[in-house]
Amino acid sequence: MASIESLTAREILDSRGNPTLLVEVKLTDGTRGYASVPSGASTGTHEALELRDGDQDRFHGMGVLKAMKNIEERIEPAIQGCPVHDQESIDKHLIELDGTPNKSNLGANAILGVSLAVAYAAAQFNKLPLYRHLGGETARTLPVPMMNILNGGKHADNTIDFQEFMIVPLGAPTYSQALRMCSEIYHTLKKILKSKNLNTNVGDEGGFAPALKSNSEAVELLVSAIESSGYNPGLDCFIALDPASSEFYKKGKYVLEKEGLTLSSEEMVNYYARLVSEYPVVSIEDGMAEDDWDGWKLLCSKIGRNVQLVGDDIYVTQVARLSRGIKEKASNSILIKPNQVGTLTETLKAIDIAKAANWTAVISHRSGETESTYIADLAVAKNTGFIKAGAPCRTERVIKYNRLLQIERELEEHGLYPGMSALYNLGK
User: What single-letter DSSP state applies at residue 15?
Assistant: First the structure.
């Protein structure tokens, strides 16, 4: 059994041109594992802390030299000699070494970079792909893509209040067919936008970012793109929304500036109920603000039997908040972002707890991404059924979808594309 010999950290750039970490773990037998850390734009206040330098003369304060130093001077001596296969023990040691509730001492970015690099090194040592190393022989489900093809909110400099408008190819027979469907709809949407003299520039996650009049207009454009591509909305392909409502929650009200609306929690719930009744919306992420627990419970009681309600900012991949959500029936799904919590072990535990409660777990990228494909392997390893990795545009997004094509080929007849059965949390 190999053990950890050394750690090395480097400062690289993410997809938005900001610094992030690349971590290398070297084992005693010479095996190496690498991992890079993403960064979010729309972040929840309860997320683990991403450590930045704050030096305004360098990368506008966004440098990660402090996190690098923590890896090489504090983390490396603490885990040198540890067996690489004991992921849980290593992650526990990292958490104890940090000693803070939000990983603000060492930085969640430093801790996650090490945690993921350890997993990759162990997989390399065993000569296994990451999904097989993490999930064993039961890892076989190719996730349904939830593609953000039209951007608003903090992901684009336009005037739509909602942040993401996604297509969800639940009716496809295979993952590769689902990917083809999404690509065709994406390119059809571009043609439609051009025909309307609307902007076809893209946002952080590759989705188009036109200036539109309302959130409903954005949904209608997606429906039109699905139909014009030869598919049936609500049968072949569905729509998912990520309003990122914490961003427009002000003084206890939901302020949709573009539409001139200021809504109470109950009125916001009714707004979503109307959208769901008029369009084939099957999933809503962050429909209510991160601490509006009563609003979440109201939303879930009203439409939770028929719509996947995904908690991101409210749970931030953390077990304590997730457990409260399950107890209070605040939603029926959790978004999984490893950098919100800081270690692979904590991430896997959150997925397991969600699935045990008959909730879905949606594996997600961040708006500031790298060329890493670990979320694709994670989705297959845990058979989660859904993945969010952005539009079929921009290499840092597409590489994750292409990784899933590779896994699909490796699994051959053992692979499973769940389609509608991925929504096992509905109708309960």
Answer: T
Please state whether beta strands 147-151 and 164-168 pair in parallel, antiparallel, or not at all (unpaired): antiparallel
Burial class (CB in 10 A: 0-12, 13-18, 19+), 30: exposed
Per-residue model confidence as pLDDT tens digits over 58-107: 999 999 999 999 999 999 999 999 999 999 999 999 999 999 999 999 99
Nearest to 400 by CA among 358, 345, 349, 363: 363
Bridge partners (DSSP) listed for residue 33: 25
The whole-angstrom distance between residue 360's C-alpha and the CA centroid of its chain comes to 13
264, 285, 334, 402 from 150: Cα distances, Å:
26, 15, 22, 21
CA distances from 292 to 165, 313, 416 (A): 22, 11, 37
Q: How remote is the C-alpha of 70 from its chain's centroid?
A: 26
CA dihedral for 138, 140, 142, 144, sign (positive or negative): negative
Please identify every residue annotated as catalytic. Answer: 205, 337
249 vs 245: CA distance, rounded Å = 6
Which is nearest to 48 in space by CA: 333, 310, 365, 346?
Answer: 346
- Report the distance separating Cα 272 and Cα 242, nearest Å: 11
| Mean pLDDT calculated for residue range 279-283 | 98
